[in-house]
Amino acid sequence: MSYVKRSEIDVSADLAALIENEILLGIDADHFWDGYVALLKDLVPENRALLAKRDELQSQIDAWYTSHKGQTFDVEAANSYLREIGYIQPAPAPFEINVENVDPEIATVAGPQLVVPVMNARFALNAANARWGSLYDALYGTDAIEGAPSGKGYDAARGAQVVAWARAHLDQVAPLANGSWADVQAVEAGETLSITLGDGATTLANADHYAGYRDNGDVMLRVNGLLIEIKINRDSAIGATDPAGISDIRLESALTAIQDCEDSVAAVDAEDKCVVYANWLGLMKGTLQESFNKGGKVMTRRLNDDVTYTAPDGAGVTHPGRALVLVRNVGHLMTNNAIMWNGEETPEGIMDAVITVACAMHDLTKTDGLRNSRAGSVYVVKPKMHGPEEVAFANTLYGRVEDMLGLPRNTVKLGIMDEERRTSANLAACINAVKTRCVFINTGFLDRTGDEIHTMMQAGPVIPRGEMAQSAWLGAYENGNVDTGLAAGFTGQAQIGKGMWARPDDMADMLQAKIGHPKAGANTAWVPSPTAATLHATHYHHVNVTDVQNDLRARPHASLDALLTPPVMIGRNVSDEEVTRELENACQSILGYVVRWVDQGIGCSKVPDIDDVALMEDRATLRISAQYLANWVEHGICTKDQVEAAFRRMAPKVDAQNAGDAAYSPMAPAFDGAAFNAARALVIEGIAQPSGYTEPLLYKARLSVKQAAK
Ligand SMILES: CC(=O)SCCNC(=O)CCNC(=O)[C@H](O)C(C)(C)COP(=O)(O)OP(=O)(O)OC[C@H]1O[C@@H](n2cnc3c(N)ncnc32)[C@H](O)[C@@H]1OP(=O)(O)O
Ligand SMILES: O=CC(=O)O
Ligand SMILES: [Mg+2]
Predict the structure, then answer these.
(1) CA–CA gap between residue 461 and residue 568 (Å, rounded)
(2) Which ligand sits nearest to residue 384's alpha carbon?
(3) Quick one: which of 52, 371, 585, 693 has the most CB atoms within 10 Å?
(4) According to its UniProt record, which residues of this chain constitute the active site (predicted)?
(5) Where are the beta strands (DSSP E) in 180-296?
């Protein structure tokens, strides 16, 4: 890689060109680079000290559990030790966040949050455009309706089921004064909504559900703040068969979308980071586009326009056509060779902070066109922070970035991923550390599960993975997050978010289960795809989250003791069959994910588990699998040899799963490629990995593959 000297640092020539020629907006390049160096000088030592503190606390916790081996777990004694070493910190006096200029998609309206790897422009654009999605398509094309389309063309019987489902949904969430949406013969929208049924006329039971109409006759409803567009088009194939000419029902779906620079991407060097930043820049400028071949046709995807309609009082309304996008930066751990200082890599988190916010200035300076934040904010999601000092460090970092770029204080809003144990245990103090920026707390339960296993490594053998969802700590974590957000005044200002639906193909189950998120008081929850966003949107039609939050405020705060009780097996045997099954399942998913990451730079994959259920795998799910097996080896539930044997049995299976991919290199029978070795190391060296993170080994392996290819 070639570098250019800027101020006192060596910057990848490609990154410097991107920044100087395309990103910097009215900022002198020399001033920018001097500011960058000043920031490194002030913040790198603190960054390193925070990482050292993580290690120090971990060794103290390891030592405490090792010295209490074999004893019955005493939560009081454990927590008093955690207080003594500063792991549990005093809670702040009651306070409320006070955040200004927050867009309604975050502050007031509840709805789905889509996450997308920003390195993939085709997906990133699709995510931004997923603000609106077809309910008919989402039902027709997934298992949300039992079975699958039959025959080659349109399956009319399935189509009828879709229409029936969608009309029944409208009957529940936007009912007619009398009769059913299933029997509508004609719709006339104007100052009021007139609906003709077979046996007379009616209108909506609740006039507030009527939002207006579009020039083409489409009807706009609004339920719990989310728009529903009833499309009327008698010339379309579906509309022609419908008595009222209804051709589709389109839902406001992904209100927000997180463009991810972190766990769903594989960005290890300057070349990769340039792709990340260029895509994010394109989204902020509104110019990103991508051409690709789909179904034999070349298509070009761009950002969608806003949606216009007329309100019942005749006023013209312009409503966002795109999700409000947030950017997930990386955490405080990793460094990257894109910017070198004194011959050393510099923190990737600092680089993400400066560059993604600088890109967002292109949005901030717009007054029309494809704007992202109409309120004038930049939304950054900060993952993997451990405790209040690390959150305070993020506050300092983004404040320094604002100063460097000449932005008003608190332009940058922060979302805290509540996904590390020390953060959950001190969540109020974490929020307090960014109380003028904090726009979300989200239970990233996948990383959080990985951190639970890693932090409690010496407490004993962890329970089988399938039992984790029911364990007491997880319930206390999910409830505690909501309780803390409510006490900190999040209602009307910020999101209380819940985690990812990690079975992207199982939409029927998602429809059943994920309504639990708004019912638990979450005003958003993560979905893996635009289709999932549309289906999950229906949940927010049913549940008024503000009402739920108002009710929940009265309940007692979730128990800290439960939160900090480790999910270990006490006095329990695990059968040989169960061990083999767990080993094979984990090894298969580790290999299936790692091989695509290391060999092809794909950061998020759909990988079949041992029962052939397709699971979304990213660095966080990998962290769980690796730490889980590392824990079982540590406590003698299985041996290193068994792990090795399971990897070798599973590698040919993963190779077969990828047989259709021309770019794929098999791992068997040699078992000595970079990917296989990285997978093995993630388990065998798992305990030594900082906080059990997977990135150090993944980055190393990927860099070696990229180097070899050059
Ligand atoms: C623990 C955590 O940190 S969770 C957060 C990180 N995880 C994520 O961000 C998950 C994001 N999701 C994804 O990356 C993908 O959905 C995967 C990898 C799970 C599955 O990808 P695929 O196997 O390619 O999906 P599939 O073939 O079913 O669908 C592809 C289509 O859906 C679209 N799509 C799928 N996921 C997304 C998404 N998250 N955003 C936007 N579009 C998407 C694609 O654009 C594509 O449509 P197109 O052909 O019109 O472009
Ligand atoms: O980032 C999300 C998680 O679950 O981890
Ligand atoms: Mg995470």
Answers:
(1) 5
(2) 3
(3) 693
(4) 328, 618
(5) 184-189, 193-197, 200-202, 210-213, 219-223, 226-232, 246-252, 256-260, 289-294
Give 382-409 pLDDT, tens digit per residue: 999 999 999 999 999 999 999 999 999 9
Q: SS3 of 490, please?
A: coil
CA 450 to ligand 3 center in whole angstroms: 9
CB atoms within 10 A of CB 648: 16
Put simply, whether the predicted model's pTM sits higher than 0.90 gets the answer: yes
Taking a C-beta distance cutoff of 8 angstroms, is the pair 38, 338 a contact?
no
pLDDT at 148: 82
Instruction: Provide the strand spans (E) within 240-311.
Output: 246-252, 256-260, 289-294, 297-302, 307-310
Give the chain's domains with CATH numbers.
83-133+255-285+323-563 (3.20.20.360), 134-252 (2.170.170.11), 576-709 (1.20.1220.12)
- What element of type H or E holds 616? strand 614-617
Name the phi and psi angles at 472, rounded to 5. Answer: -65, -40
Among protein residues, the one whose CA lies closest to atom 32 of ligand 1: 529
* ipTM given for this complex: 0.99
Token pair for 98? 């006070």
| Token output for 317 | 């309304």
Closest CA to 575 of 583, 564, 567: 583
C-beta separation of 303 from 129 below 8 A: yes
Do the beta carbons of residue 525 and residue 536 sit within 8 Å?
Answer: yes
Report mean pLDDT in 10-residue bins for the chain, 710 residues. Answer: 96 98 95 98 98 98 95 94 98 98 98 98 98 98 90 91 98 97 96 94 97 96 98 96 97 98 98 98 98 95 98 97 98 98 97 98 94 98 98 98 98 98 98 98 98 97 96 98 98 98 98 98 98 99 98 97 95 93 98 98 96 96 98 97 98 97 97 98 98 98 96
Computed from CA positions of residues 518, 556, 446, 94, in that sequence, does the dihedral angle turn out positive or negative? Answer: positive
What distance in Å separates the CA atoms of residue 522 and residue 553, rounded to the nearest whole number? 13
Tokens found for residue 528: 């893996």
Distance 638 CA to ligand 1 centre (A): 35
Tell me how crowded residue 608 is: count the other CB atoms within 10 A of its CB.
Answer: 16
- Active site amino acids: 328, 618
357 closest CA partner among 380, 339, 330, 373: 380
The residues facing 349 across adjacent strands are: none
Atom of ligand 2 lying closest to residue 443 CA: 4
Count the neighbouring beta carbons within 10 Å of the beta carbon of residue 186. Answer: 13
CA neighbor of 681 nearest in space, from 617, 637, 633: 633
Bridge partners (DSSP) listed for residue 50: none
- Which amino acids bring their CB within 6 angstroms of ligand 2? 263, 383, 417, 419, 444-447, 499-500, 620
Q: Which residues are within 8 A (CB) of 466 and not within 5 positions of it... i.e. 6 or more apart?
A: none
- Between CA 220 and CA 199 the distance in angstroms is 24
Q: Which amino acid is at 207?
A: A
Using CA atoms, how far apart are residues 259 and 309, in angstroms rounded to an integer? Answer: 28
CA 105 – CA 323 distance, rounded (Å): 8
Separation between Cα atoms, residue 232 and residue 211, nearest integer Å: 16
Mind listing the pLDDT tens digit for each residue in 491-540?
Answer: 999 999 999 999 999 999 999 999 999 999 999 999 999 999 999 999 99
